[in-house]
C-alpha cells in the first residue's frame, strides 16, 4: 500500500534544511510534495519591491532543484491559495497540508481561510512555528501579558533559549538545526485519474517559475541592483554567507579573524562589511534563526576573550530584536496600521511633498542621509545604522509622518518585512514600544561617529569625492564645491526645536 501523500506549503521558509514543518511532514511520510502559490494579492501589491521579487524568483528556482534532488518536486501554482490548495490536495489525494505559521495579520487571516477550505474537503492541516526561536505564545510577563519593552523580553527570550541548550552547545538540546529530508517519494502522476491530474489543465500549474516572475518584473519595475545587493538569494548562498560571517573556515576570516567576533563595533560602520547581510535570508526563510543561533554558539568556542564574546552576544541580541518585533506584531496586529502610543495619532505632521521627494531620492543636501538613500535606491538594501539616521531625519527634521517612510522602505527593500520595518520606524519615531519618550539623531554627529573618514558617503555620492571629510560629515559644503549637489533642505537645530515644540503639545497618557 502506497504511503499517504502530504503537501508542504512554502511561504517564508524557502529552504529544505532546518525547516520544522517540512521535517514533521517527512517524519510522517516519505510521500511529501512541495507547493508554492504565487498569490497576486502579494506579488502585485503596490508596496511590493522589485528587489524582493528578484530575491523570491531566484530562491524559488533553487528550491525547485532542491526538491528534485530530495526525490520529490515543488509544484508552483498561481492564484488564491484558499481556492487552489484544496483543489490540489483533492487532485493528489493528499490527506494533510502542512505549513509554518506567520505573524502578520493578513497572513494569519489567509491561513484561517485556507484551513477552513481544506477542512471543508476533509483535508487535515498541520501548522506550527518555524521562523522564531521562541513561539510568541511562550513569551509573557509575570502578569501574563505580552511584552511591550525589549529589555524584559530579551531576558525571558534568552533564558528560554539557554534552558533549551546551554550557551556554546550548538548541537544539543531543542535548538539543533534539522537536516534536510532526503529519499522522498515523488508523485505517481500516471496513477491519478486524468480528470484530476494537475497537468491536465484543472489547476493553474506553472512549469517554470523564473520566466513567470520575469514577466511580473516589467520594465518599469525591474530590479537592476542585483550586483550591488549584499543579500544573496537561495538557501545555498545564505548558508555560505552565514559560514563566511561566523566560522574560522569562512573566506572572510582568513588572515582577518572571524567577522562575527568584530561585530561590535563593526556593525555600526556603514563603510565596512561588518554585518552578516542575512536580513533578506531570514525574511524569506532561506536560512533559519536556529541555524544562526547555532553558528553563534560554534563561534563562542573560537572566541579569544571578553570582547569577542561581547560581539557574539550583541549579534544574538539582534536576533532577539527581530523576534521582539515579530511577537509584537503577533500580539498587537494594530501596529500594522498606526502608532502603538495613541497620542501620536494627533501629531501635526507637515508632510511637505517636495521634502519627502528629495529625501526619497537622496537629494536633501545632508550627505550621510543622501548616501544612505542612494544605497537603498541602487542596491535594494541599506545599512541598519543608516536606516535609523534617515528615518530620524525624515521624522524629526523634515517632520514627515513615519508611515510615509515605512511605506517607501517597503517598496524598495530586498529584506522588507512588515514586523521589522514597522518596529524600526516606530522605534525611531518614538511612537512604538519604547520606554524612551523622544529620540532625535543629529545626522552630522552620526556621520562623525560612524563614518569618520567619509568612505561610505564618498562611495554612494561620488560627485562629492573631492570634498573634505569634515565638510562631508557636517554637510557644510561651500557653494563652489557642490557642483550641482543641493543645498541642505533644513537646519537641524531649528527643526529639532520645532519638533520638540510640536511634541510638547501632544496629549499625555
Description:
- The chain is α/β, with parallel strands linked by helices.
- It has three domains: 1-131, Rossmann fold, CATH 3.40.50; 132-175 and 233-332, Serine Threonine Protein Phosphatase 5, Tetratricopeptide repeat, CATH 1.25.40; 342-504, DNA Cyclobutane Dipyrimidine Photolyase, subunit A, domain 3 (Orthogonal Bundle), CATH 1.10.579.10.
- It is built from 22 helices and six strands.
- β4, α5 (105-120) and β5 form a beta-alpha-beta unit.
- 43% of the residues are buried.
Form type = globular
For the biggest sheet, the summary is: 6 strands, mixed
Helix content: 40-55%
CATH class of the largest domain: Mainly Alpha
SS-based class:
alpha/beta
- Give the distance, in angstroms, between the N- and C-terminal Cα atoms: 66 Å
- CATH level-4 homologous superfamily of the largest domain: DNA Cyclobutane Dipyrimidine Photolyase, subunit A, domain 3
| Radius of gyration, whole Å | 24 Å
Gross CATH architecture of the largest domain: Orthogonal Bundle
Overall average residue pLDDT: 91
Low-confidence stretches: none
Question: How many domains would you count in the coordinates?
Answer: 3
Task: Give the number of DSSP strands.
Answer: 6
Order of helices and strands: EHEHHEHEHEHEHHHHHHHHHHHHHHHH
Would you give the CATH topology of the largest domain?
A: DNA Cyclobutane Dipyrimidine Photolyase, subunit A, domain 3
Amino acid at each position: 500500500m502506497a504511503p499517504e501523500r502530504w503537501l508542504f506549503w512554502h511561504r517564508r521558509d524557502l529552504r529544505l534544511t532546518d525547516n520544522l514543518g517540512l521535517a514533521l511532514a517527512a517524519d510522517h511520510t516519505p510521500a511529501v510534495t512541495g507547493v508554492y502559490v504565487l498569490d497576486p494579492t502579494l506579488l502585485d501589491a503596490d508596496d511590493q519591491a522589485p528587489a524582493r521579487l528578484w530575491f523570491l524568483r531566484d530562491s524559488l528556482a533553487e528550491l525547485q532543484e532542491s526538491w528534485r534532488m530530495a526525490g520529490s518536486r515543488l509544484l508552483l501554482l498561481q492564484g488564491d491559495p484558499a481556492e487552489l490548495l484544496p483543489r490540489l490536495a483533492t487532485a493528489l489525494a493528499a490527506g494533510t497540508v502542512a505549513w509554518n505559521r506567520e505573524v502578520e495579520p493578513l497572513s494569519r487571516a489567509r491561513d484561517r481561510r485556507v484551513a477552513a477550505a481544506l477542512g471543508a474537503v476533509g483535508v487535515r492541516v498541520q501548522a506550527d512555528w518555524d521562523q522564531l526561536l521562541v513561539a510568541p505564545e511562550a513569551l509573557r510577563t509575570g502578569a501574563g501579558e505580552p511584552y511591550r519593552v525589549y529589555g524584559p523580553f530579551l531576558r525571558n527570550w534568552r533564558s528560554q533559549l539557554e534552558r533549551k541548550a546551554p550557551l556554546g552547545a550548538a548541537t544539543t538540546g531543542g535548538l539543533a538545526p534539522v537536516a534536510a529530508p532526503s529519499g522522498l517519494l515523488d508523485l505517481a502522476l500516471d496513477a491519478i485519474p486524468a480528470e484530476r491530474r494537475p497537468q491536465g489543465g484543472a489547476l493553474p500549474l506553472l512549469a517554470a517559475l523564473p520566466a513567470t516572475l520575469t514577466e511580473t518584473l516589467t520594465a518599469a519595475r525591474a530590479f537592476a541592483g542585483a550586483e550591488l545587493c549584499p543579500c544573496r538569494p537561495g538557501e545555498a548562498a545564505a548558508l555560505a554567507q552565514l559560514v563566511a560571517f561566523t566560522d574560522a573556515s569562512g573566506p572572510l576570516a582568513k588572515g582577518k579573524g572571524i567577522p562575527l567576533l568584530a561585530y561590535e563595533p563593526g556593525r555600526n560602520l556603514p563603510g565596512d562589511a561588518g554585518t552578516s547581510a542575512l536580513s533578506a535570508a531570514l525574511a524569506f526563510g532561506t536560512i533559519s534563526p536556529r541555524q544562526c543561533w547555532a553558528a553563534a554558539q560554534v563561534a563562542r568556542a573560537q572566541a579569544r576573550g571578553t570582547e569577542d564574546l561581547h560581539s557574539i552576544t550583541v549579534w544574538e541580541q539582534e536576533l532577539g530584536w527581530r523576534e521582539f518585533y515579530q511577537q509584537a506584531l503577533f500580539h498587537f496586529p494594530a501596529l500594522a496600521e498606526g502608532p502603538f502610543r495613541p497620542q501620536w495619532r494627533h501629531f501635526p505632521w507637515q508632510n511637505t511633498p517636495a521634502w519627502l521627494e528629495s529625501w526619497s531620492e537622496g537629494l536633501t543636501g545632508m550627505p550621510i542621509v543622501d548616501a544612505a538613500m542612494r544605497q537603498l535606491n541602487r542596491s535594494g538594501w541599506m545599512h541598519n545604522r543608516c536606516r535609523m539616521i534617515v528615518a530620524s531625519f525624515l521624522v524629526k527634521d523634515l517632520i514627515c509622518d513615519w508611515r510615509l517612510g515605512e511605506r517607501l522602505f517597503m517598496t524598495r527593500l530586498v529584506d522588507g518585512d512588515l514586523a521589522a520595518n514597522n518596529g524600526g520606524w516606530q522605534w525611531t519615531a518614538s511612537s512604538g514600544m519604547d520606554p524612551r519618550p523622544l529620540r532625535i539623531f543629529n545626522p552630522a554627529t552620526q556621520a562623525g561617529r560612524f563614518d569618520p573618514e567619509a568612505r561610505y558617503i564618498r562611495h554612494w555620492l561620488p560627485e562629492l569625492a573631492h570634498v573634505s571629510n569634515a565638510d562631508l560629515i557636517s554637510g557644510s559644503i561651500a557653494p563652489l564645491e557642490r557642483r550641482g549637489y543641493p543645498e541642505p533642505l533644513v537646519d537641524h537645530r531649528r527643526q529639532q526645536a520645532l519638533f520638540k515644540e510640536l511634541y510638547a503639545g501632544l496629549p499625555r497618557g
